[in-house]
Amino acid sequence: MKRVVIFLICVPLFVFAVSANERLNSALSIMKELSNVPDSGAFVELLRQSEGLAIFPSLIRIGLVIGGQYGEGFLLKRDVARGKWYGPVFLKLTGLSLGAQLGIQNVGLVLVLMNEQAVKSLLSASVTLGGNVSIAAGPLGRSLSAETDYKLQASIYSYSVSKGFFAGLSLQGSMVQLDNDANKEYYGTLLTTEEMMKREPSTREAVELIKFLNSLIYLQPGD
């Protein structure tokens, strides 16, 4: 147990503090890299069905018998009917795992939120993935299987990208919490999640990210 406590304390030390807008800017780079991978077609199709997106531009994963991860990101809610995005709400992710593992890895993490319950769960003060909200590694491939309705199988699908490598990522048992410091920095005051979810992204970094997301969602065949 002592090892676990020390591990949880040390993991965040590997993450360099970045501003809220820097997270948004880094997220755009992650999304561009992820969408350019040949096997990202299934991801884009899920994005078109989604009701939200959580992006952690830098998720540090460390393994030494006990493994763990720490990342800082944000969530955007999507109004499918109106074609609008709301937020962001800034988040932190932590997690532990046991088993044969060794090394340090830095990945970009994207969580595709398939329904309103997934969005609400991540906006609570703290939620454990795989508990009340189901999560699975996202499907890979140039398209989704025509026989499978992924939207009914899991509330959240996870993807990671690192130095051109793209894969689904399992995050069972990881905890997501609100990052109140980053939310206060971004909005100038500490708002409730309900208040943040009523605001459309307005900073340059957020607007550029939304513009790119919409270019993927509304891409026409042959474009």
Features:
alpha+beta; seven-stranded mixed β-sheet; disordered N terminus; 7 helices; 223 residues
Note the run of SSEs as H and E. Answer: HHHEEHEEEEEHHH
> Which structural category do the helix and sheet elements fall into?
alpha+beta
Q: Give Rg in angstroms.
A: 17 Å
Counted by DSSP, the helix tally is 7
Mean pLDDT: 81
Terminal Cα separation, in Å? Answer: 54 Å
In total, the number of domains comes to 1
> Low-confidence parts, pLDDT < 50 over ≥5 residues?
1-9, 11-15
Please summarize the sheet with the most strands.
Answer: 7 strands, mixed
Shape: globular
Q: Considering DSSP H and I runs of 4 or more, what fraction of the residues is helical?
A: 25-40%
Number of strands: 7
In percent, how much strand structure appears in the residues?
35-45%
